[in-house]
Amino acid sequence: MIYLIPVVVRDAHIIAKLIHKRVMDLNIDGIYSIYLDTKIRGYLVIEAKNDDVVKKAISGVKGVKPRAELLVISESELDKILMKLTTEEKIVINIGDVVEIIKGPFAGEKAKVTAINSERNLYTVIPLDLPTIVPIDIPAKNIKLLKSSKE
Fold first, then answer.
1. Other C-beta atoms within 10 Å of 67: how many?
2. Pair 55, 107: CB distance under 8 Å
3. Spatial contact of 73 and 44, defined as CB atoms under 8 Å apart
4. DSSP code of 118?
5. Could you tell me the CA-to-CA distances from 124 to 103, 132, 149 in Å, in that order?
């Protein structure tokens, strides 16, 4: 069976190592795999024989969010999640496009893309609603395309 274990996002890789160490130290049989994917934020995937084995492996590990019942998913559901994450459409943002800043001090502002640094995955934008023209470098994950310049 496959279990989704809710964990603290910033410590997920450490929590996975702690659970692995606990399984090895206590010789817990029935844990087949521990999987951590950065795209499945806040969850650790554990393949195990049954609930009791998983509860024994995660008990006492800091950073695991407590739940009354373990979240069980089927292999087909996990495949669907992983396929969706790997086949995500890549939105191309070009110079002249209008974007929305979704993270940071200028969150919610509309801006126009003026330059692209593909090596560092940064976009230089100029907010449209500010009284002064201030170019801002923003990571690609912090902006969302609103209007393409090709339209």
1. 11
2. no
3. no
4. T
5. 15, 15, 15
Local confidence pLDDT in tens for the 151 residues of the chain: 899 999 998 889 999 999 999 999 999 999 999 999 877 888 999 999 999 999 999 998 999 988 878 889 988 888 888 787 777 667 788 999 999 999 989 999 999 999 999 888 899 999 998 888 999 999 988 999 998 887 6
Entry pTM: 0.59
CATH of the domain at 134: 2.30.30.30
Residue 30, number of CB atoms within 10 A of its CB: 14
> Is the same domain home to 20 and 82?
yes
Tell me the sheet residues that pair with 100.
Answer: 110, 144
Question: What is the extent of the structural domain holding 116?
Answer: 98-147
Dihedral sign (CA 45, 49, 55, 59): negative
Dihedral pair phi/psi, residue 67, rounded to 5°: -140, 150
CA angle 103, 111, 41 (to 5 degrees): 25
In the sheet with 122-127, reading across from the earlier edge strand, the strands are 136-139, 122-127, 110-117, 98-101, 143-147
In a domain, 30, yes or no: yes
